[in-house]
Amino acid sequence: MDMDDIKAQVKAKLGQLRSKLNSVPILQKAEDKVKIPKEYLVLVGGSLLFFLFFFGIGAGSICSIVGFIYPAFKSFEAIESKNRSSDVQWLVYWVIYAFFSVIEVFIDFLIYWIPFYYAFKFAFLLWAMLPSTRGAKYLYDSFLKPFLKKNESKIDAVLNKSKKTAAKAAQEMTKVVAEAKED
């Protein structure tokens, strides 16, 4: 294989990529604005994301943005639509997202030691949010729903106790503030 054959193959692959990207209007707008072919924009953007994930630079922020922005927009669309099945999908996604976010807070010190954690988290978020995979629904139906149903009374008791403790703390803080104002 000589260099001309390689160039021809690369050009053919870029042409295939371009034809797939033609259905994405925002890429056409970006191409018109910056005068760089959309296939190059996607390749550079993908390479940049890969680099950031590989070296862990801003990977947590990227995961948070991906795990929040697209689902938030789709949730808004679901709320505004008459189709209630999409509401269920996004409610389930947010329950799963919240559950894993809480777990992540408690195991944060371990996350540092897991290689490529954010790459796996990114893949997990995509799997959980995409309507074609319905990963969040699978996790909810298979694991989280049975767990919550089994422990519902215990969870309610802890929440009620926490509510009373928070109310008592707020009341005490109000007293302290009122006394401080008097002095």
TrEMBL record:
Key words, A-Z: Membrane, Transmembrane, Transmembrane helix
Residues that span the membrane, as ranges: 48-70, 91-114
One GO location term (cellular component): membrane
UniProt keyword Transport, yes or no: no
Membrane topology recorded in Swiss-Prot or TrEMBL: Multi-pass membrane protein
Location in or out of the cell: Membrane
Chief site of localization: membrane
KW Transmembrane (keyword) present: yes
Family affiliation: Belongs to the DP1 family.
Name of the protein in question: Receptor expression-enhancing protein
Lineage start: Eukaryota, Sar, Stramenopiles, Ochrophyta, Bacillariophyta
